[in-house]
């Protein structure tokens, strides 16, 4: 067993042989981080995108299999146009960098959410990066963009109903396993650990179906300040939990 003791907390002991397979993160607190520094909210998102890069790189290094991040929700369109454009711009920047570094990083990139409303160029880039990275064996990163848990479930139900109407499926065939195949997360194990920074203690329409038995970790740290030490605290907290999945 390999343990790590972080200096910062003096307590966060992580057993790297017992990592969760799938960690999901609600990247919250960018706006408040910027406000505290007298900066525009968009600067907070830019800092948040940097944190995402460094945490994803670290997760890949320690051998995590799946990392899912909430980058833009179906409700985030209500934000000022300038802020929405900035977040879309950060996704584009990340995709451009990913295409360049893919051969080296070997990260598999997937997108959860309805990409339809995005500009055609961006949709093409998402498709291209997913397709290229499909052959890689590294960690899978799922970027949730224009994602909402309820929207995902409704779209899956619509898709299943359409398959029934076309004669390919029968309503009585539907099971939890079959329904899961209609979700964005098809083929991805449910998240073991969901992390929400920034002090908010709610799920905000994130992975509603998939997080049925996830463990949650909340911290007051704002996302741009989220560090690998904070990740260690989350992992150590997870490893201290007793997961019973409804059993005893
Ligand atoms: C929530 O913080 C954060 C968002 C709605 C956007 C998250 C986006 C990024 C981190 C960057 C783009 C992503 C990629 C994949 C490069 P908030 O704005 O609600 O913060 P607040 O609660 O403090 O206002």
UniProtKB/TrEMBL annotation:
GO terms for cellular component: cytosol. One of its GO terms (molecular function) is magnesium ion binding. Binds 2 magnesium ions per subunit. It comes from the Bacteria. CDD domains: Cis_IPPS. Keywords: Magnesium, Metal-binding, Transferase. Pfam families: Prenyltransf. One of its GO terms (biological process) is polyprenol biosynthetic process. Mg(2+) binds at residues 28, 215. It is an enzyme of class 2 (transferase). Catalyzes the condensation of isopentenyl diphosphate (IPP) with allylic pyrophosphates generating different type of terpenoids. Belongs to the UPP synthase family. Homodimer. This is Isoprenyl transferase. The lineage of its organism: Bacteria, Bacillati, Bacillota, Clostridia, Eubacteriales.
């Amino acid at each position: 067993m390999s343990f790590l003791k972080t200096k910062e907390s003096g307590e966060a002991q992580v057993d790297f042989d017992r990592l969760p397979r799938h960690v999901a993160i609600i990247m919250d607190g960018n706006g408040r981080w910027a406000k505290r520094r007298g900066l525009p909210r968009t600067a907070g998102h830019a800092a948040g995108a940097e944190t995402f890069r460094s945490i994803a790189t670290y997760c890949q290094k320690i051998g995590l299999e799946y990392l899912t991040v909430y980058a833009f929700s179906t409700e985030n369109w209500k934000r000022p146009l300038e802020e929405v454009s900035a977040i879309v711009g950060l996704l584009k920047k990340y995709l451009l960098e990913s295409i360049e570094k893919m051969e080296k990083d070997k990260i598999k990139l997937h997108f959860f959410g309805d990409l339809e409303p995005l500009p055609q160029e961006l949709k093409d880039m998402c498709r291209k990066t997913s397709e290229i990275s499909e052959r890689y064996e590294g960690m899978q990163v799922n970027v949730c963009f224009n994602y909402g848990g309820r929207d995902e479930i409704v779209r899956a139900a619509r898709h299943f109903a359409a398959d029934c109407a076309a004669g390919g499926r029968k309503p009585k065939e539907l099971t939890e396993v079959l329904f899961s195949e209609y979700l964005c997360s098809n083929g991805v194990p449910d998240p073991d650990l969901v992390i929400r920074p920034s002090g908010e203690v709610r799920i905000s329409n994130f992975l509603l179906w998939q997080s049925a038995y996830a463990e949650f970790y909340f911290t007051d740290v704002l996302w741009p300040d989220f560090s690998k030490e904070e990740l260690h605290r989350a992992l150590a907290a997870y490893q201290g939990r007793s997961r019973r999945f409804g059993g005893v």
